[in-house]
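Q: For a teaching session next week I want to show students how multiple molecules come together into a single three-dimensional assembly. I've collected the sequence lines for a complex. Could you give me the predicted structure tokens for the whole thing so I can convert them for display?
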Amino acid sequence: AQRVTQPEKLLSVFKGAPVELKCNYSYSGSPELFWYVQYSRQRLQLLLRHISRESIKGFTADLNKGETSFHLKKPFAQEEDSAMYYCALSGSGNTGKLIFGQGTTLQVKP
Amino acid sequence: GAVVSQHPSRVICKSGTSVKIECRSLDFQATTMFWYRQFPKKSLMLMATSNEGSKATYEQGVEKDKFLINHASLTLSTLTVTSAHPEDSSFYICSGREPPRDEQYFGPGTRLTVT
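A: Of course. Below is the structure for the complete assembly, covering every listed component.
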């Protein structure tokens, strides 16, 4: 079955600390993985996708097929990073359908 | 970036009535739109995929006769919740897929409350 798991509901760190938001997936083919972010009172927006291999707002994520993981990392958290983060998977076939994880709330304390 | 709007942002209706939610891509043509449902403090659950000019594809467990989807043009998809019940109360979010990167842009969501 296709599934995305984000084990942490809430991650609380201090400003300047490293951040790692965990994401594991289950998919039989070759998925495309995404991280979406939702800031307070704003709509969901794309943060990054694994095929782009880019760093956005200091965040990076590497697809590890062996561990079926796509963890989101940032070396030094900022207060403005506080938001809800969703890991999502899109399967093969170019349907565009997204399967979302449960989401992790990142709270960066001053 | 591309913008997707939803209307209304909030709606309250009585049990048994129907309510229509509109999803519009404002500055791009969305060949595909998606409808999601989000329960409080839960993830987004894909309800259906809407393709312009064809019937929507519903996910398993989603009643197509209850959640009517129409994708009349490349910039408009509508979700009609028919004979609404209190358990249909939820946050409904749409997204539009923009070629060629096929990136999805999300609407702000519609809060439906059925009394």
